[in-house]
Amino acid sequence: MLQHLKFLTAGESHGKGLSGILEGFPAGVPLSESFIARDLARRQMGHGRGGRMTIEKDHAEITSGLRHGNTLGSPIALWIQNRDWENWKQDKMSHEAPSNPVPEVTLPRPGHADLAGVQKFGFSDIRNVLERSSARETAMRVALGAVCRAFLNELGVKIFSHVIQIGPVKTATKPDQLHTDLNKAADASDVRCLDKEAAEAMIKHIDITRKAGDSVGGVFEVLASGLPPGLGSYTHWDRKLDARLAAAMMSINAMKSVSIGDGLDVGEATGSQVHDEIILQDDTIRRATNHAGGIEGGMSNGELIQVQVTMKPIPTLARPLRSVDIKTHEPGIAHKERTDACAVPAASVIGEAMMALVLTDAILEKFGGDSLDQVKAHIAATGV
Ligand SMILES: Cc1cc2nc3c(=O)[nH]c(=O)nc-3n(C[C@H](O)[C@H](O)[C@H](O)COP(=O)(O)O)c2cc1C
Questions:
Q1: How far is the CA of 335 from the centre of ligand 1 (A)?
Q2: Which CATH number covers residue 79?
Q3: Among 37, 115, 172, 328, which residue has the least CB neighbours within 10 Å?
């Protein structure tokens, strides 16, 4: 649902690496590999992650679209090497058929892409599916999102996220005042939660769940500040900013619901409880509250954008669920891979990346411009 930008990712979880291309991105944006590395490191944090995070220290190499520290307006290509490739290339992930056939994965995991994936492509080995359906791919989305963050930073647009629920444990309060550096505060917590008491209870819950060989999901919130009104449009279904954000968040592996502003609570509230009164403040027309989460009629309204996303529990379980062998049709238990018990903190950083991609697209759609300076001039000319 991107209108102006295009991006593509490629790569398998234990393949050689991940490739990404971002097209339609303006020239003149200051960018470096170390800037992208910060968000990649943030994606790798969080209590409940599996062993992989100690093997992979992700680094995105910028292979095109950059000169002397500034983007060129040409496609930006990124490459993230999978360090685990060295351990896998001889047999399981070799490009040629191996001399000694490796055992196929034939017991699909409930909740994963395994069964529908082999049925779709007619594969006999689930590895052909799981290598690409793995959330490893989201490392590249975070890298591409960081490129967009570099652009948004230049316009004073900030994107934050924090975890508000792990399993049954919820934060007591949501921050109604935006911290100047909410991400710094969230990153300081092992579960990216701003409420210290809740964070401790979340960590305990993850540990108990992991010990039981099980997994747990949760909810995170992604916020964006500094946006002008009028991004997106009420004029057509696929231009609506809320729809575009929802699709982007839903596209992250394991996300099962997206809500905006008061979100799921609006179903039981009345109109006067939900709608934000319009007031004059310092000669500016704005809202007295922000129940709408910064979006009305499919457009940004100039207030803080607030999107909540629910992640289901991770499908690969240390104590696997029942399954059926796709070749023999014998009942068995599902395949086990090295797995996370909880990845909600990491998912919140991926949510930031998707928000950055969608907002960059919406800004370029509305204001246009081939370079950062042109975009800035166009924004200034509209007086928003
Ligand atoms: C950051 C992150 C890490 C994940 N780690 C795992 C994992 O270790 N094991 C697993 O089975 N699923 C993991 N998942 C979830 C699966 O990728 C996802 O459930 C699967 O692709 C099926 O897609 P669906 O849940 O959207 O239907 C992770 C998801 C995210 C966002």
A1: 14
A2: 3.60.150.10
A3: 172
What are 319-353's pLDDT values in tens digits?
999 999 999 999 999 999 888 899 999 999 999 99
CA 299 – ligand 1 centroid, Å: 31
Better pLDDT: 75 or 46: 75
Residue 78, in any domain of the structure: yes
Q: Among the atoms of ligand 1, which is closest to the Cα of residue 339?
A: 8
What residue numbers bound the domain in which 272 lies?
Answer: 6-382
pLDDT for 241-271, tens place per residue?
Answer: 999 999 999 999 999 999 999 988 899 999 9
Q: At what angle do helices 138-154 and 33-43 cross, to 10 degrees?
A: 130
Measure 254 CA to ligand 1 centroid, in angstroms. Answer: 5
Pocket of ligand 1 (CB under 6 A): 50, 112-113, 133-135, 138, 252-254, 312, 314-316, 339-340, 343, 346-347, 350
Is residue 40 situated within a structural domain?
Answer: yes
Identify whether 1 is part of a domain. no
Could you identify the atom of ligand 1 that is nearest to the CA of residue 346? Answer: 1
Asked whether residue 346 is domain-assigned, the answer is: yes
Q: What is the pLDDT of residues 47-73, one digit of tens each?
A: 888 766 665 689 999 999 999 999 999
Q: How far apart are CA 302 and CA 308, in angstroms?
A: 18
- Backbone phi and psi for residue 213, each to the nearest 5 degrees, phi listed first: 75, 20
